[in-house]
Specification:
- The chain has a single domain, classed as Four Helix Bundle (Hemerythrin (Met), subunit A) (Up-down Bundle).
- By secondary structure, it is mostly helical.
- It has five helices and no strands.
- The radius of gyration is 15 Å and the shape is elongated.
- Helix content is about 75%, strand content about 0%.
- It has helices at about 15-30, 40-70, 75-95, 95-105, 105-130.
- Bound molecules: fe (ii) ion.
- Fe (ii) ion binds near residues 62, 77, 81, 120 and 121.
- Fe (ii) ion binds next to α3 and α5.
Length: about 140
C-alpha cells in the first residue's frame, strides 16, 4: 500500500495542528506497513485503537481552535470529525465492518486523514490567513 506523505500543502500554519497531523500520518503508515492486514488482526486492532485515540484528541484540539477563532463553518467541520470517528468505532465493534474497512484501508486512511486536511482543514487555514488570524507563509 502507498504510504501517506506529509507534503508541503498539508501544512495548516498552526504548530500544534501540524504536529498532530504528522503523528496521524505516522500511525496510518504503520497500518500500511502491515503486509497482510486480514491475517494480522491483533496488530491492526491495536493500531486502529491507537489511531482512534489520537484522532479523538486531535479533533478536540482542532475544534477548540476553530471555536476560538469563530470559524463560520465550525459545525460542518465538527460533524465531519464525528463521522470519521464513528466509522472507526463501528469497525472496532463489528467484524463485518472491520473486514470492509480492511478491504478499503488505503482509500479510507487517505480520505480520513490526507483528504480531510487538504479540503476541510485547508479551508479553515485559508480563511484564518485571509482574516489575518494566522500568518501567511
Ligand atoms: Fe479537521
Amino acid at each position: 500500500m502507498n504510504k501517506l506523505i506529509f507534503t508541503h500543502d498539508c501544512n495548516i500554519g498552526i504548530e500544534i495542528i501540524d504536529s498532530q497531523h504528522q503523528l496521524l500520518f505516522a500511525i496510518a503508515n504503520k497500518l500500511f506497513s502491515i503486509q497482510y492486514p486480514q491475517e494480522q488482526n491483533d496488530k491492526v486492532l491495536f493500531l486502529l485503537e491507537h489511531l482512534l485515540n489520537n484522532m479523538t484528541i486531535h479533533f478536540r484540539t482542532e475544534e477548540q481552535i476553530l471555536l476560538k477563532y469563530d470559524f463560520p463553518a465550525y459545525t460542518k467541520h465538527k460533524q465531519e470529525h464525528a463521522e470519521i470517528l464513528l466509522q472507526i468505532q463501528k469497525a472496532l465493534q463489528c467484524s463485518d465492518c472491520m473486514s470492509k474497512l480492511l478491504q478499503n484501508l488505503d482509500v479510507l486512511l487517505n480520505k480520513w486523514i490526507k483528504d480531510h486536511i487538504l479540503t476541510e482543514d485547508k479551508a479553515f487555514s485559508n480563511w484564518a490567513k485571509s482574516t489575518g488570524l494566522i500568518k501567511k507563509k
